[in-house]
Design a protein that fits this description.
This protein is α+β, with helices and mostly antiparallel strands. It is 19% helix and 31% strand.
């Protein structure tokens, strides 16, 4: 069973959607750089020295909401909605190109949200390989997946936590080979619910509601960050 650290926070970034030759491609800032003055909600940050254990061209599964259903429930089989490829690094952080699987309902949900600027990203790292220091700087963040989140109804970037995901099956579903260094124990077992039915489209009322929630989340994030900086 592989533990996954999920990082959200005020540095989470909206996704740019680009349709090229029929592909649903997203430009994703999956690991934004911060500093001692620009921390996330948990008081930690990435820098250009953070080792994400990837090279340009390396690929990882793209998941919906870190393997959860739109309502926030944990599901037995995390939804792999595409493949993310490590593209480049600049002064903002590490960028990924995500190509969505157009046969997946949740991928369509993410694509429609991304075209309205309502999709955010969060990276998941292999917990037993994570390293940080007592100041909050993240030294090693071995990326196991890139998650995409259509913000709204509780699905807002807020914090990070440790959960368990069946990473081997996630890599297999994405058509990728899992790095040997990521392997730690067997696949999790259990009878967690599997959610197959999801909404393809959002109504205009839902879109307005989610945009209001996003505005509230942004205001809350800014207020929290300001309070931490002052205190």
């Amino acid at each position: 069973m592989a533990n996954i650290l999920m990082r959200y926070g005020p540095n989470s970034t909206a996704i740019k959607a680009v349709e090229v030759d029929g592909e649903w491609a997203l430009e994703v800032l999956g690991v934004p750089f911060g500093s001692q003055d620009r921390k996330d909600f948990d008081g930690q940050w990435f820098t250009e020295k953070t080792d994400i254990m990837m090279q340009p061209g390396d690929k990882r599964p793209a998941l919906y909401y870190h393997g959860m259903a739109p309502n926030g429930e944990r599901v037995k089989n995390p939804e792999v909605i595409g493949v993310s490829e490590y593209a480049r690094t600049d002064e903002q952080g590490h960028w990924f190109r995500v190509v969505l699987d157009q046969t997946k309902k949740l991928a369509k949900r993410i694509w429609n949200a991304a075209r309205r600027g309502l999709t955010y990203a969060s990276s998941g790292a292999i917990a037993h390989l994570f390293r940080g220091n007592d100041k909050g700087e993240i030294r090693v963040w071995p990326i196991g997946e890139i998650s995409l989140i259509d913000v709204g109804h509780g699905r807002a970037p807020s914090n990070w936590d440790a959960v368990a995901l069946p990473m081997k099956s996630v890599f297999t579903d994405a058509g990728l080979e899992m790095p040997e260094s990521f392997v730690e124990g067997d696949e999790p077992e259990g009878d967690e619910p599997k959610t197959d039915e999801v909404a393809d489209e959002l109504t205009p009322e839902q879109i307005i509601s989610e945009e209001i929630e996003i505005a509230r989340a942004v205001i809350s994030a800014a207020s929290t960050a300001a309070a931490k900086a002052a205190g």
